[in-house]
Amino acid sequence: MLPYQPAPFPLARPRRLRSSPWVRRLVAETTLTPADLIWPLIVHDGAEDRVPVASMPGVFRLSPKAAAAAAVEARDLGIPMIALFPNVDGAIKDAVGTGATDPDGLIPECIKAIKDAAPEIGVMTDVALDCYTDHGHDGVMEGDRIANDASLDRLAEQAFIHAHAGADVVAPSDMMDGRIQAVREALEANGFSDTLILSYAAKFASAFYGPYRDAVGSSTALKGDKKTYQMDYANSDEALKEVAMDLSEGADAVMVKPGMPYLDIVRRVSETFRVPTFAYQVSGEYAMMQASIANGWLDQDRAILETLHGFKRAGCAGVLTYFAPQAARLLSR
Ligand code: PBG
Predict the structure, then answer these.
(1) What are the residue ranges spanned by the domains of the chain?
(2) CA triplet 207, 325, 313: central angle to 5 degrees?
(3) Reduced DSSP (H G I as helix, E B as strand, rest coil) percent helix, strand, coil of the chain, to 5
(4) How far apart are the C-alpha atoms of 23 and 16, rounded to whole Å?
(5) What are the counts of helices (DSSP H) followed by strands (DSSP E) for the chain?
């Protein structure tokens, strides 16, 4: 039901408000600017500065040095924050993800390189063990189960290592129960009470993470699936419960993931909680669009801006997208 009764045609002619670019701009209900974008960067410990990711055309695995250059580019484009995701040598992967808590590991090195080169940009890190475990799961295992409580200590330590290296925002993406509280307590206890937590609160078990798992090299490792911890895509009320718990445990902002197939969840979360709500246009969404663009089936610039604007319309404070630099360039024209 509308809150008013529109006048009948021909008194009401909705097209009047669309009749020229200036009036469309004047009455636009939402805006998209570079300040709405978070750029995910895949970083690696390999020798080369930039290695293309086959399943994500236009995305590269970056060395710490190349990541610092990307952060400078992002800052200059007006992008407020980058997010780091690691691809580490398979030889350092083990059952408990030891590499995740190495204070001299790839992520701490990248954070420091970025903070040296572009101190003005926010740096967000992924808190999860999957990139460091030989089984590819986000927590530790007991037999063939992902052990919730035993994973919490590892995740809290990882978040501390990131904060200590200079991360501004830690983003637990593991979906263990109680991880936000564990991370918040570890940060508080160690003098990092100003470090933000952006929780991947409603993260669904999704086919759309496929290209990312290739990019970080966790797909060959992954045993089974993540359905015992990531959410079932049949559910929506459950997303509200997850968000409520994460906020009560100390999350500053929340995320819905994936993005485009889950804008209904974004809408419910942002309306219910009125906290900064982000969404992630994930690797599979990016790959799907790039494949169509490469075939000439979608117009690149229009498709990028339309999808990103959709996130804002749904209620997002911002969007994680691999298209961030392209979008920022289009928006600053
Ligand atoms: C895992 C993590 C994933 C992504 C970000 N962090 C994948 C997963 O849960 O398997 C996906 C990002 C993307 O698909 O773009 N900690």
Answers:
(1) 31-331
(2) 65
(3) 45, 20, 35
(4) 9
(5) 11, 12
pTM: 0.97
H-type alpha helices, 19-147: 21-27, 64-76, 106-117
DSSP 8-state class, residue 78: T
* Mutual angle of helices 64-76 and 324-331, in 10-degree steps: 20
Confirm if 88 and 61 have CB atoms less than 8 A apart. no
Q: Which two tokens stand for residue 172?
A: 């637990």
**Which pLDDT band holds residue 49 (cuts at 50, 70, 90)?**
very high
- Residue count of the chain, please give it: 333
Q: Whose CA is nearest to atom 6 of ligand 1?
A: 173
Pocket test for ligand 1, best of 212, 283, 319 (most atoms within 8 A of CB): 212
* C-alpha to C-alpha distances, 202 to 49, 75, 98, nearest whole angstrom: 34, 28, 26
Integer Cα distance of 162 and 125 in angstroms = 7
Closest CA to 283 of 258, 316, 265, 318: 258
242 assigned binding-site residue: yes
31-331, what's its fold? TIM Barrel (3.20.20)
Q: Spell out the alpha helix ranges (H) of 190-225.
A: 210-216
Question: Which residue minimizes the CA distance to atom 14 of ligand 1?
Answer: 209
pLDDT digits 0-9 by tens, 198-246: 999 999 999 999 999 888 888 777 989 999 999 999 999 999 999 999 9
CA of 213 to the centre of ligand 1 (A): 7
CA distances, 76 to each of 60, 100, 113, 115, 262 (Å)? 20, 30, 17, 14, 31
Residue 331's alpha-carbon distances to 277, 301, 304, 305, in angstroms, are 22, 10, 11, 8
Query: Is the CB of 281 inside a 6 Å radius of any atom of ligand 1?
Result: no
Nearest-angstrom CA–CA distance, 43 and 180: 25
| ipTM of predicted complex | 0.96
**Identity (one letter) of the amino acid at 331?**
L
What amino acid positions are annotated as catalytic residues? Answer: 203, 257
